[in-house]
Design brief:
Shape: elongated
Distance between the termini: 34 Å
Mean pLDDT: 70
Oligomer: single chain
Radius of gyration: 21 Å
Structural class: mainly alpha
Order of helices and strands: HHHHHHHHHH
Helix content: 55-70%
Number of helices: 10
Strand content: under 5%
Low-confidence stretches: 135-167
Number of strands: 0
Number of domains: 2
Length: 167
Amino acid sequence: MNQEIYEELLFARTLMTDTKEFLARVKLMKQNIGRGELSQFPNLSQTSCQEDDVSTYVQHLNALYSDFESRFEDILTMVIPPWIINPYGDIEETNVIIQEELTELSTNEELKVQFKNGYQQFWLQNNIPVTYPDKTVRHVSIKSCPIQSWNMDIRVCVKQPEQRNFT
């Protein structure tokens, strides 16, 4: 059970990062096309674009950006505590139990070495849920939770995600 929780948190972190990266790329493309800089679009740069065409492309990218931003609002506004990414950083957690567990974890030299392989592999180790069965993940307070099962399984969601019609 704990292993699934860690995997879901790491998936959420990756999904949030990828979503933000995609939106940043769309924004950059929109700015570049608007300025007539077409190096990101080799086929388009080989043709002569009329101003109306460029305006249409910018409008489509604006629509894509807005639609993507609204459809993935819950993911983009999700708050993942910094200790998920770096459990060895400064402990600025208000929950005393989490503070104690992070302090205990931060003094474990074996785990510190394993953390150098990346935070995903670190949290997915088999010994983390065993060594820290009441570990911090259960106490996480995520402001918006896109995965409904989290609310039932570990009760970390503050509010249920809204039901959306994606048609």
